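re: ur question from earlier - yeah i can do the single chain one, its not a big deal. heres the input i used so u can compare w yours
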Amino acid sequence: MGLLGGVGLPGRGGRPSIVRVHLAKAGRRAGRRVFEQLDEGGWERLLEATEGLSGADIAEAVRRALELKVQAGATGGSI
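and the output i got, formated as tokens:
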């Protein structure tokens, strides 16, 4: 008989670490930094926007942001 256990959503203190892991992963895959450094205000907005998201949700958000950045670059736009 298996045991089921729940994992809670990351708190405000844990989300920056999750974001950093996925930003670094994207950078390693690209061979360069692909996102700009966030200032304090940027982190605050990011923390508010990721409230209630799981680690997998945050990973998907980073993946989609990278996809948008690549598409914008391919068309001469910027994000």
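The CA atoms of residues 35 and 65 lie 9 Å apart. not sure if urs matches, ping me
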